[in-house]
Recover the amino acids of this structure.
């Protein structure tokens, strides 16, 4: 595994420069508040669009097997 | 030797119909026919060369159940080079042959757009059932339907090498390519309680290698139907994948697999280092392990995790890129994009999977479901969670949960809209699509490797297209420019 460890050490530096890594901010930070508010908005919206009778909706979704 | 990884995806969509005459076969036909009528497509599929029972290992196993070809259901070919039809009891969209994984992401998304247009077209017809399509792989009750990939390979490579080389990748790539699922629906896990799986499909796999696609599904499918010159080409038919909505997931699923296959062709994949003792069990374990730490037993008795196998394959891919380049994966910079994204996602999975919430389907779905559980205090067997899971895949914009999750995009809406009608420029799909667009009445049937023309007199004339890399926009530009009608086209082709 030594070889792999070495490779993995090279991974983070590349990643940080190329990809926007979304860090989990502390809830008290302004960004954390915003993320929580976004998630709340999303959950409100989902409560609105989610099929009314979940049990029936799920029960009625029956497929014939395919490939 | 590695050849260009021409690739395509065939997706069987889940379908739900309510109202009079709500049966899945007629509902699927309704979608396909409503779309075909709207875009005025009359060219049917040609079954001349369909041999789905041919086995890459060169024999038929006793008791094997080869798939049947159904010829009586709705079946059409589109101007973008795609096939849109009814398979079993599902609408199925097969993208045209694409030249690289990024183009395929675009055409896979165009397929979703076509299904959406089909739902609208079907809804406008009088007194029909309401038909809703889902891009997923199971109904949560033990019935699964597929999302298959196809890759062009060099026929010279022994099939045994392909099998040994791809299995570790197919067992482990689900950690970024899985679409996520609430619960289990087979006996794969025995009495183990599994609340959420990384993959929709994994638990349906029971064999390592085989010809079947609808039962006793194998990790490596041996269907030997190249749809091209069989002396030069193989088409690897991949049935282990989940249908992805996330563009990054599709891109990585196809991109990493293309690189792995190129490495197998050039004998540069050190697969013996991570050959697994029981790949089928391992595949189930990986799907059930959200911590990504469960050790899998290797053939030599030692253990390794899915993430570690992916890092090993990735390291081999970096070496391969350095020594041989990645031209066969696509024009620059697509190959580098695959490697960079692959590395970043493995790093994300290792350090903080939540950081990939806008990139990968299973992470996005899991995050959503956990947030919902937090808010409503649901147990895992609450029907609302199963409903969330299902509705993640609903293709109607007003109901789709996926559409509300701000997922990262790799292709633009304009590119997707163009791919609804325009074929890929760098494969034979161009010739197929352009002929259909220009002379819709003359092309009576089409399939992957030929077009059949009816010029009004004489017998029908078949134009073979046995090389997927010929018939491109570049090859045919002067031909299409010079020909006023299909008769001239065929005269020029035969002279």
């Amino acid at each position: 595994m030594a070889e792999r460890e070495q490779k993995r050490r090279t991974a983070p530096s590349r990643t940080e420069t190329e990809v926007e890594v979304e860090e989990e901010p502390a809830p008290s930070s302004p960004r954390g508040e915003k993320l929580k508010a976004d998630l709340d908005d999303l959950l409100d919206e989902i409560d609105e669009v989610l099929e009314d009778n979940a049990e029936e909706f799920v029960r009625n979704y029956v497929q014939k097997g395919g490939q | 030797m590695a050849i260009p990884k021409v690739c395509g995806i065939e997706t069987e969509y889940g379908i739900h119909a309510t109202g009079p005459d709500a049966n899945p076969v007629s509902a699927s036909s309704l979608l396909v026919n409503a779309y075909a009528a709207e875009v005025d497509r009359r060219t049917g599929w040609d079954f001349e060369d369909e041999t789905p029972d041919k086995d890459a290992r060169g024999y038929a196993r006793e008791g094997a159940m080869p798939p049947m070809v159904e010829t009586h259901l709705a079946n059409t070919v589109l101007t973008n080079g795609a096939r849109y039809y009814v398979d079993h009891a599902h609408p199925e969209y097969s993208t045209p042959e694409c030249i690289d994984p990024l183009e395929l992401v675009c055409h896979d998304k165009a397929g979703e757009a076509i299904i959406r247009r089909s739902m609208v077209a079907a809804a406008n017809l009088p007194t029909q059932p309401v038909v809703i399509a889902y891009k997923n792989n199971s109904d949560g009750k033990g019935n699964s339907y597929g999302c298959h990939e196809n890759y062009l390979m060099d026929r010279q490579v022994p099939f045994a090498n392909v099998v040994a080389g791809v299995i570790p990748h197919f067992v482990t790539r689900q950690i970024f390519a899985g679409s996520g699922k609430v619960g289990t629906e087979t006996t794969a896990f025995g009495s183990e309680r599994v609340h959420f799986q990384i993959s929709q499909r994994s638990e349906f796999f029971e064999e390592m290698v085989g010809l079947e696609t609808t039962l006793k599904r194998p990790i490596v499918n041996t269907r030997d139907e190249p749809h091209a010159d069989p002396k030069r080409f193989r088409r690897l038919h991949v049935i282990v994948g989940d249908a992805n909505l996330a563009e990054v997931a599709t891109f990585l699923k196809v991109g990493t697999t293309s690189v792995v296959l190129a490495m197998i062709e050039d004998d540069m994949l050190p697969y013996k280092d991570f050959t697994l003792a029981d790949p089928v069990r391992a595949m189930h374990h990986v799907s059930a392990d959200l911590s990504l730490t469960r050790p899998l037993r290797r053939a030599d008795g030692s253990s390794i995790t899915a993430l570690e196998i992916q890092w090993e394959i990735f390291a081999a891919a970096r070496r391969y890129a350095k020594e041989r380049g990645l031209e066969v994966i696509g024009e620059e910079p697509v190959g580098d994009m695959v490697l960079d994204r692959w590395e970043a996602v493995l790093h994300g999975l290792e350090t903080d999977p939540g950081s990939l919430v806008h990139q990968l389907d299973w992470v996005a779905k899991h995050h959503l479901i956990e947030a919902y559980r937090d808010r409503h205090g649901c147990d895992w067997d609450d029907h609302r969670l199963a409903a969330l899971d299902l509705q993640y895949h609903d293709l109607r914009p007003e109901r789709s949960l996926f559409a509300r999750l701000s997922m990262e995009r790799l292709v633009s809406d304009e590119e997707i809209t163009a791919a609804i009608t325009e074929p890929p420029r760098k494969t034979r799909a161009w010739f197929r699509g352009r002929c259909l667009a220009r002379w819709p009445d003359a092309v009576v049937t089409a399939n992957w490797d030929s077009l059949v023309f009816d010029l009004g007199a004489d017998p029908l004339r078949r134009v073979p297209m046995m090389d997927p890399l010929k018939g491109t926009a570049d090859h045919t530009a002067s031909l299409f420019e010079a020909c006023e009608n299909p008769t001239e086209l065929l005269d020029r082709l035969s002279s």
Remarks:
- The mean pLDDT of chain B is 94.
- Chain B touches chain A through 60 residues (CB under 8 Å).
